[in-house]
Amino acid sequence: DTGVSQNPRHKITKRGQNVTFRCDPISEHNRLYWYRQTLGQGPEFLTYFQNEAQLEKSRLLSDRFSAERPKGSFSTLEIQRTEQGDSAMYLCASSLDSTYEQYFGPGTRLTVT
Amino acid sequence: AQSVTQPDIHITVSEGASLELRCNYSYGATPYLFWYVQSPGQGLQLLLKYFSGDTLVQGIKGFEAEFKRSQSSFNLRKPSVHWSDAAEYFCAVGAEYGNKLVFGAGTILRVKS
Fold this sequence. Notes:
The structure holds two protein chains of two kinds. By secondary structure, chain A is an all-beta fold. Helix content of chain A is about 0%, strand content about 50%.
């Protein structure tokens, strides 16, 4: 068990560019979550998957954001036409079905210039 | 909707002193409660959780927390703080649907020698 991994760890991009982040959950975990954390705040829920199905999306997830988990294993989070307000730490977590114990990855820090 | 309040933004304690971090939640049903710790540049590590049963729960690194339904609180305690405990601590409540987590804004713990 290597834990939840996220790539890249840091991403600097210019406003208007698209970015994609990847999350690899703990191998036997069927639930995968995305959160966003800004400075001085706790993580805020964005979306989650049970296997390959995206079951809930937060209102924070504007139409510029899209998340996929095509084979129920890794997930990607894409942000199109990035804005400076998208600068944040994007955290991924995974859990077994209904255990309520979410294990977090190290996060991807996005800076939009 | 669920919410979590952590009244203290910063707390400073002396090494070896006892610690209590406050957490109040708002939730209509029996909550699922968690404490996570985040060191600089790191993801969140689960310290402990409360689902049901004994209201005093033990976690890793010598931490414990007590669930008090009458006060809607889930305070984190440690009898003797070590310098390595300096970090940011987040309380979270499991939401009713989909078990997404709702986090408080966090408490930054500083340990002075």
